[in-house]
Amino acid sequence: MRRKIIDYNLLSTKGVTFNRLDINKLVKYPKESWEHFAVKSQIFYILRTMDHDVLTEFEITGFGIGDVIDISTRITCQYEIETAIKSAKHHKTIQKYARRGLDIIIVYIPKLPNDEYDRYKYLKDVIIVPD
Question: Distance between CA 59 and CA 127 in Å, rounded?
Fold first, then answer.
């Protein structure tokens, strides 16, 4: 088994703060809806089956709490799960995270397929895996 190296300095320069004991733990935020948690857990599951290290409900200094971030790659891709489509608000969110150097993918729950298997395939296609 290969040894994975997490670049903690890269994460800290991007403002991502977390407890190292929280790596690869699926955390439910107290006020999140069932749909939100279900999508977050599916993204978490897909990333973990690809042998990636993942954080859920982590802090980004000056911005707030993020949903899911893949910390195994140099891309540091963050997945934000949204329950409603509000393009003006999300355009600002994308710009805000881009200034931190984080690649952000917003997953809109209303656009997801209702069938669990179709949803799994859709989310697997959304996830960024570097070459």
Answer: 21
